[in-house]
Amino acid sequence: MNIKVHRLIQKKKQAELAEHLGITTVTLGRYENDIGRMPTRLLVKTAAYLKTTPNDLLEEYMENKEEQ
Q: Which residues are CB-contacts of 29 (< 8 A; sequence separation ≥ 6)?
């Protein structure tokens, strides 16, 4: 998921988003770097916070996986 790009566009710090989601910055960093899978409930909450849709985040994730 390209959470980091969306986060940077919104000028939000990693710590701000992590706090909003109730997770650590380490965990968020893993999601941003595609090391772990973000639970659906967090994906929905992240998309709302970043003013996008879960679908947008998932589409970018799938495009990145296809390129690899």
A: 14
**Residue corresponding to tokens 């960093």:** 29
Alpha carbon 68 to its chain's center: 19
Question: Could you tell me if 20 and 45 are in contact, meaning their C-beta atoms sit under 8 angstroms apart?
Answer: yes
d(CA 67, CA 22): 32
**What pLDDT does residue 58 have?**
81
Cα dihedral 24/33/21/25 (nearest 10)? 20
Taking CA atoms, 13 is separated from 20, 25, 31, 66, in Å, by 11, 10, 15, 28
**pLDDT number for residue 8:** 93
**From CA 12, how far away is CA 4, in angstroms rounded?**
9
